[in-house]
Each structure stands twice: as structure tokens, then as C-alpha cells.
Amino acid sequence: MSDSETAQASSASWTARWIWGRQSGFVLVVALAGLVLDQASKLWLLHGFGLAGRGPVPLLPILDLTLVWNRGISYGLFQQDGAIGRWGLAAATLIAAVGLWIWSVRAGHRFLALALALVISGAIGNGIDRLAYGAVVDFIHFHVGDFSWYVFNFADVWIVAGVCGLLYDGLKSGPNSAAK
Fold first, then answer.
1. More reliable by pLDDT, 48 or 178
2. Rounded to an integer, what distance in angstroms lies between the CA atom of residue 90 and that of residue 71?
3. 43-49 long-range contacts, Cβ below 8 Å, gap at least 24?
């Protein structure tokens, strides 16, 4: 093998480690499943069920279907009405998803990979909404009496579940595990 072939093989090996790893197949399957569930629910509620024209639809005494267009991030923070803000949030979503994917490639165990896959799935699901509609489609409204929790979607559920998993994994691993 010539020096240039060795260099190319080494470069390809380095690139492959950043793109594909031991848990990557699992992360890909979980992230795609979450993404399909999120996007299918949004498409059906918007175009099949016609949620926009129906107004709030009570499901349980504490749960309604309500269409809200979120032009910001969690809890409607940092609302972005212009194209620059919309594309900025979409770019931040893409950067975060790539960073999380690289982390997932190096995940040492399946629980960490699952948590990362859920966050990736949710981030991409909400990112697709920003690109397609200019805002995130939120539709699950949780409320108790006069107390109204925010309106969210399945992508948000995946993100919260994934972050909880990351926190649990960090606490379970101990404070010095990252230094090893």
C-alpha cells in the first residue's frame, strides 16, 4: 500500500469513527422511529383531522388538542418572526443534532445511546417544522383547572425524556466518570 493510500485509509477510518460507531445503528432506528411518529402526528392533525379549523378538542379533563404555532424555542422563548431568526434556529438545530450524533457514536452503553437518540429525534422533528412551516407545530395542551401548562408536541416529549435520561445517566455514573 502506498503512502497516499495509507493516508486515505487513515482519513476514511477517522471519518467513519465520527459518523458511525457501536451504537449508531440503534440510535438511527430510535431517532427515525421517533421522527416518524412526531411528523405523522403533526401531518395528520394539520391536514387529516383539520385541527386548525376545529379549535381546542378536549381529550381528558386535563388534556386538549390545541394548535399553537411556536416561532421560538421551549416555552415560546426567543420568538422569531423573521427569516433570519427562523433559519438561525434551524441552523442551531442542525448543529445540535450533528453534535449529539457524534456523541452517540461514542456512547459506551445502550441507555446513553437511547437518551441521545430521543433528543436527536425531537430536535430534528422540530427543525423540520421550522423549515416546512416557519414555526413548530405544538398541539398537546396539558392543564389542571386554571393552571395551564404549555402546549407541546411529541418531539418535545422525546427531548424531555432524552434529557432526563442524560441526567440520570450522569448521576448514575458519578461525578468523576467523565474524567476517566
1. 48
2. 11
3. 45/137, 45/139, 46/137
* Cα separation, 64 vs 10, whole angstroms: 55
Euclidean distance between CA atoms 49 and 60, whole angstroms: 18
The predicted model scores a pTM of 0.82
Residue appearing with cell numbers 383547572? 145
Using one digit for the tens of pLDDT, what is the confidence trace for 15-40?
A: 566 667 788 899 999 999 999 999 99
156 carries an active-site annotation: yes
* Radius of gyration in angstroms for the set of CA atoms belonging to the chain, rounded to a whole number: 20
Average pLDDT over residues 160-167: 96
Would you call 138 a catalytic residue per the annotation?
yes
Catalytic, out of 38, 64, 129, 156: 156
